[in-house]
Design goal:
Layout: H1 8-14, H2 19-29, H3 44-53, H4 63-70
Helix pairs in contact: 1-2
Amino acid sequence: VPYTGLVLSDALGALGVLPATIDLMEREVGANGTLIMVDAGPRCNEVESILVQNRGILRTVMATEQAKMTS
């Protein structure tokens, strides 16, 4: 199944991510980048380890947005 394109600002805005954070993510990811969002819960260390082993660049949700992203 082919992936479909999306407008990052629309997708993240619907999750309650602040516009300034969306702008930062768009600059960091770029037009050809890949963004993986994970709600790992108690398995956070395991998920981070997998991403690092596969050359992922880790970013964490700012504390002020954590509640908006998980509610």
